[in-house]
């Protein structure tokens, strides 16, 4: 939210019309042929003036007397030194005041500081959107006319590692009606470049908010021991109960879920099950298969779903027998879905909450090709997460039509949703 600061004329005490001042400055810049941004631009000049004025005010407070007034102690002003800082309008050269005994510690532009804080946020934002360190450096050169090394950009992004650790260990809510667990494949160099899964858990809170619980580096073929460790970590961070966990055939995960939360229901991801069905069929039949599958997962009961699936199998599984095996293997984790109210079905069937997140993750990791290690990949994924919610809580948006779903959850899981 923008904030307007009233400017008072020190002589008359009247409020200065800021819009009128801005119009006058723009008119003067146009007459003099001065550009708005870039080296020597109007905004650069204004930034220089504001920073130098603030630094002089800090020096006045430090010494206890105004500029050009007589010194009231041993320490006094001792000229200025030139310094170039990178700001959001480009590189700006400013004159920093000095004092005789060197005790002045400016706050607005600290000693040895070469970038204003807003620049770090720009670097983190660009990195989260998939730009490599080289591309971010080129961006600053093109847009701000400033040279920022790849090493400096890496150091800026490294600052979030401590923040990421704190985020990954933050306390969580006591109960989540639904938790989605999914994987994104990232290329990591481990002796040689290979595909490695990184797992993301997204909870839906009792307020209907999406809450990214954490990100974990895994390995192909992870089993129950790995998953029990991940889920125990989530439980130790305060999650006492989860009603439904939506996942997609990850080895050892269903057993680990029920071990961690005894009352949790394991639900296979319906969208993923349908997509995996398409993998075994010719693309030209996808529309027909989708249409014929719909009566299966919209059936009112398990018996009705079984009957509809047999009708589907009679039509398609002679041609594509692997589809029958896929559904039979997933049936135990599929059928809990059929016991729920339509509002609960809508929440657990829709994977928009995690698919939109995965799309951002994929865009960011694709731009880099591969990562030197797990830590670099985790940092990249966290930067994407951070860009969704800069407060670091990992919460980004409301789930649609949550109130009807909340009522359905409260009735279905009576006494567990408070």
Concise structural overview:
With 418 residues, the chain is α/β, with parallel strands linked by helices. The chain is built from 16 helices and eight strands.
Fold and architecture overview:
- Belongs to the transposase mutator family.
- Keywords: DNA recombination, DNA-binding, Transposable element, Transposition.
- Required for the transposition of the insertion element.
- This protein has 3 domains: 18-113, no CATH class; 115-158; 175-412, no CATH class.
- The strands form 2 sheets. It has a 6-stranded mixed β-sheet with strand order 7-6-3-4-5-8, with helices on both faces.
- The chain has helices spanning 18-32, 42-63, 117-128, 133-144, 150-158, 160-168, 224-236, 253-260, 270-279, 286-297, 302-316, 321-334, 342-349, 352-368, 374-388, 402-412, and strands spanning 77-87, 90-99, 175-190, 192-204, 209-217, 241-247, 265-268, 395-398.
- 48% of the residues lie in helices and 18% in strands.
- By secondary structure, it is an alpha/beta fold.
- The chain starts with 17 loop residues before the first helix and ends in a 6-residue tail after the last helix.
- Strand 1 and strand 2 form a beta hairpin.
